[in-house]
Amino acid sequence: MNRSDPTPRSFSTDQLRSALGDVVAPARTDYLSDIVEQAARTRQRAAWTFPDRWFSVDISMRRHGVPGAAIVFVVVSLLVALLAGAIYVGSQTRHAPLPLRPEAWSRIQIESPSITGRVASLAVSPHGLLAAVGGDEPTHLEVSTDGRTWTPVPDDRIPRLSNDGAFGMPFVMGTDHGFLMMQLNTIWSSEDGIDWQPLAGETTDPDLSRGGPDAATAGGPGLVGVGGAQAWSSVDGSDWTSAEVPSLPAEVRARPESEPYVAMNGIAASGDDLIAWGLAEVSSEDDRDAHRVVPLLWKSHDGRTWADAVAADMESVTAVTGGPFGFVATGTAGSAAAIWRSDDGGAWERVDGRAFAGYMLEASVATDAGYVVVGSDGLCNATSCPDREMVIWTSPDGRAWSRVPSVDLFTGARAYGARAWGTSFVILGASDGKPAIWISGSP
Amino acid sequence: MDQHRLFDRASRGDHDAFGVLVGGHLARLDAAARLILRDPELARDAVQEATLRAWKNLRGLRDPDRLGAWLHRLTVNACLDIARKRRGRSFEVELTSLNDAPVPDPTSRVADMLYVERMLAGVDPAQRAVVVLHYYLDLTLPETAAMLGIPVGTAKSRLNRALDAMRIAVADEDESSVSTTARERFA
To answer: Which of A22, A296, A369, B171 is surrounded by the most beta carbons within 10 Å?
Structure first.
């Protein structure tokens, strides 16, 4: 049988079920004792920390129901007080130093209907913060004016979202007027993060018929976005124009068995320069069942035309951010964590990586004060690591890096991204399997 | 022992009772993870990650009858998490000795298995997850969509794309034929 030229076959449901069962036969249960030992070493969460049990309200009912008037009153009063505080704090112009010490960081866990979950995406706007929270329950949105207190957006106010963590978590971004949310070829807008309206989609915009942005940023004519193997630009998010993108590397185009998997995962701006990053998966030359990753890095000045900008020594690119000294990219080189910097995204210079040896770099962000890169303890295996530690490095210029000392605040944590909020750095992710963010200083 | 009593004991910190509860599901959890990740070690990691999460948060589960479905959901999400993380690095997939075996009678069960195994390698983990949930774990499409947290239409199109990519046509696809609920199947 040759996968490059397979003859289509017809299966009955039972036949396919049996074949799948045969693929994984015989059954394997030999590590049950490991599971039990692991449980014996791990403390369970106390019952009172599950609000759904505490209030004796069924999760599904609470998620779709209307909160009681008293709770609404208390929450609204709290929000008003916090909003007043946030406006006062926001009016004080000052420059915060880089958060070099653990004391500069605080962790905020976002209570979620999910038993477990993470903050998958976070947006900053003049209205405050919006978080897309997902996990083992369908994705939902939370809003906050101060980053400390979060209020869930009622499910009946938002479009149906996905929690398909591998490919479909919604992306949210802030604008001068509010928020945008992107998923499944559709872009929604909201002024306050609570009331959402569809802004563009595949049914009205032919340029979104083959997919839509999975990430976007302000730039070009107004907004630029990337997703899959495509890029777009838009003035205001209501009408998107496909951009001209570089050809995929020859080794990706040559993948024989099916359409190659390509995912442009993010986009960053520094001045007028734009950088988009992602990856393609290809089969190895000598073993079609083994896949490897080819990094993709595109550069543009206007968001309409993109050029290839990947450096020769990049094995993968996991994040890029634009800051006061240009772009900083994280990824791997020589099977080790690596950081590059670039003034304009055209030429990349690898910086001394000794500080990152043994770690995996997963997110980055910059403010006027400098750069923050977030990674995880490389001593853990792929993802199974109950005591996994989040590690933070800071740099004023993208060249010299120092690590924030390890404390309990960062153990059992994992970063999924990072954002700038005024002078604060915000890391989004999960702490002990629960949605959480870490904020430096005061925004 | 009665499952509810076991659950009560496990919720009070009895890890042996938890082991009995998980043991009843482990073979299918492990098989589903191996089908999605196509790597036995990563599959073991995913199942261990899922069961540890379940243990930690067991007291948050109100309905003991949902344990099986919950474990499957945690496992699928752990698999997709691992797949997402592996995107940043090379993804080595273990080949079985069957790949080098002579091509058997194309009508045989072994041929079916070899074909499905080879074709699974050509689709991404999210597509594999839909195939596994629907055809291996016998979830209906609405149940599959709910477990993945995606719209039913997305689950259906993802399943169709997966089957297209796997060069497989399912002749007797019939949603109504799956009458039992996920709760009944995983209980």
So the answer is: A296
Residue B187 in domain = no
Question: How far A442 CA sits from the closest chain B CA (Å)?
Answer: 31
Residues B39 and B66 in one domain: yes
Tokens of A82: 């916090």
Domain A45-440 has what CATH class? mainly beta
A6 to B119: CB separation less than 8 angstroms, yes or no: yes
Domain with B140, as residue range(s), is 96-181
Q: Is residue B174 part of a domain?
A: yes
Given B89, B122, B150, the domain boundary residue is B89
Contact residues for A300 (Cβ-Cβ < 8 A; gap 6+): A220, A224, A231, A243, A273, A274, A276, A306, A307
Spell out the alpha helix ranges (H) of A5-163: 13-23, 32-40, 51-54, 59-64, 69-91
Distance from CA of A289 to the nearest CA of B (A): 6
Give the whole-angstrom CA distance, residue A233 versus residue A242.
7
Contact B151 A160 (CB under 8 A): yes
Q: Verify whether the Cβ–Cβ distance A13 to B13 is below 8 Å.
A: no
A244 touches chain B (CB under 8 A): no
pTM: 0.59
Question: What ranges in A106-261 are assigned the alpha helix state H?
Answer: 250-253
pLDDT in tens, A125-173: 988 999 998 866 677 889 999 999 999 998 777 776 544 443 457 899 9
Neighboring chain B residues of A138 at a CB cutoff of 8 Å? 149
- Look at residues B89, B106, B127 and tell me which one is the last residue of a structural domain: B89
Query: Cα(A182)–Cα(A189) distance, rounded to whole angstroms?
Result: 9
Tens-place pLDDT, residues A280-311:
877 666 665 566 789 999 999 999 999 999 99
